[in-house]
Amino acid sequence: MLKLKGDNLVLRALEPSDLDFLYQLENDTSIWEISGTLKPYSKKVLQLYLENAHRDIYEVKQLRLCICDADGECIGLIDLFDFDPKNRRAGIGIVIANPEDRNKGVGAEALSLLCNYAFSVLDLHQLYANILEDNQSSIHLFEKMGFERIGVKKEWIRTSSGFKNEIMFQKINLDES
């Protein structure tokens, strides 16, 4: 657990008590574009998800953690997805629920904690992120945290306003022995 505790926040496993937070976040249409969500989630479906959230990353190929502030309040989620232990890589995504909590260092600290965990505990060689080109806040965050822009997927994501390019970022574990 110490690997997932920072100066101002903690990354922790999902709990049954997170149902209302997850319901609110997953049904927030303002983030559907970045999450790939196409329809609302019911509380029943999310409750089933929470009941299975304890499953091992090696089995389900993903890990979702709550980002909690100093008071223990869940303020966002951070994920490893497409976990590939053979090639020692995974995708990484982050969302801070309340816009008022953004651009205050929370994302940077959470991303730093999860990168350290992925490299030191899961022994990953690399992490990657896919970010829409108009999501300047996320681009700034990932570049600040040492992710390198490695390519552009042209007209990759279809949105209500047309197709958007997606930029791929990558971070290689340079501390491997």
Automatic annotation (TrEMBL):
Signal sequence region: none
Top-level taxonomic group: Bacteria
UniProt keyword list: Transferase
InterPro entries in the cross-refs: Acyl_CoA_acyltransferase, GNAT_dom
Name of the featured protein: N-acetyltransferase
GO molecular function, one term: acyltransferase activity, transferring groups other than amino-acyl groups
The keyword Cell membrane belongs to this UniProt entry's keyword annotation: no
Alphabetical list of Pfam families matching this protein: Acetyltransf_3
PANTHER family: GNAT-FAMILY ACETYLTRANSFERASE, SPERMIDINE N(1)-ACETYLTRANSFERASE
Domain N-acetyltransferase: 9-173
